[in-house]
């Protein structure tokens, strides 16, 4: 389990060396700092449609990196559809996707590179958990968790003892250790969901994406999961994009919220700016009120 954390201040510039300290050093030999692009995904003129109806239409959207970004909105708003399009997944037969979706990958020593998201998927740089993960293979819980390292291994290689140790630690974090040797088909819905998340975490990618990851989880495991993801952002600078339905969780754990309705982006920003009573009530077409409690803000 990740230890308790305090917010970190990340400084992207390196300490400067004064020329007077190194008189023989020519100025041209000093490396120039590389400006970091804060954008993770850029969507331009994205349209997802059937032959007769437009489901999602986004003229321009940027999603920041090293944040926990949450899509919210009523059923049918297009949240999951857009997420699948960002992953270049076949959403449904008969749907067409147009426009461009790129991901920006950069380091402190190399310039930002804009890459089609499907290329990052093939390279194993994005970990993903959908709403309906499949558990049909005759695997044990540990074997399923170790599927997460498959993209990093040659076809003839087996997971190393280090991989097994890491998988065991994650299974312990998500309270699945007693089930390590059990067949995945015997697990409950909530246990399968936690196992799918462990498999994604085993990939150790910079980018993680989850479509309703709290599905089938009780309130305790929901809070643990979202707190865990929040810590991954704070402590390991991961970039995480999720779809959630619970407004209270979205408000408490998100760095940024994107509100959708009827295939459109209605608002984007920090939770307290986007999730107002008026705006939520309008989008969800029912009265929604926020109440501040000792444990934080709740929505009803």
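^ structure tokens above, recovered residues below v
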């Amino acid at each position: 389990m990740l230890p308790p954390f305090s917010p970190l201040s990340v400084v992207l510039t390196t300490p400067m060396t004064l020329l007077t300290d190194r008189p023989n050093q020519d100025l041209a030999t000093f490396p120039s700092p590389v400006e970091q692009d804060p954008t993770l995904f850029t969507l331009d003129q994205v349209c997802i449609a059937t032959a007769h109806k437009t489901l999602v239409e986004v003229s321009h959207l940027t999603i920041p990196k090293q944040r926990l970004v949450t899509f919210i909105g009523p059923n049918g708003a297009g949240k999951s559809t857009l997420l699948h399009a960002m992953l270049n997944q076949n959403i449904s037969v008969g749907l067409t996707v147009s426009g461009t979706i790129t991901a920006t990958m950069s380091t402190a020593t190399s310039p930002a590179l804009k890459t089609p998201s499907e290329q990052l998927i093939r390279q194993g740089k994005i970990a993903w958990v959908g709403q309906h993960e499949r558990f049909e293979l005759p695997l044990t819980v540990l074997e399923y968790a170790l599927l997460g390292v498959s993209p990093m291994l040659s076809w003839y290689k087996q997971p190393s003892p280090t991989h097994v140790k890491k998988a065991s630690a994650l299974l312990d974090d998500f309270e699945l250790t007693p089930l390590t040797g059990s067949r995945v088909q015997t697990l409950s819905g909530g246990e399968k969901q936690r196992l799918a998340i462990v498999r994604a975490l085993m990939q150790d990618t910079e980018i993680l994406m989850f479509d309703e990851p709290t599905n089938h989880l009780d309130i305790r495991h929901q809070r643990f999961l979202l707190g865990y993801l929040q810590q991954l952002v704070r402590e390991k600078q991961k970039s995480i994009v999720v779809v959630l339905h619970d407004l209270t969780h979205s408000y408490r754990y998100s760095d940024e919220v994107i509100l959708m309705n009827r295939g459109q982006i209605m608002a984007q920003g920090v939770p307290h700016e986007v999730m107002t009573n008026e705006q939520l009530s309008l989008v969800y077409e029912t009265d929604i009120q926020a109440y501040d409690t000792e444990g934080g803000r709740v929505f009803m």
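Residues 219-236 form the longest helix (18 residues).
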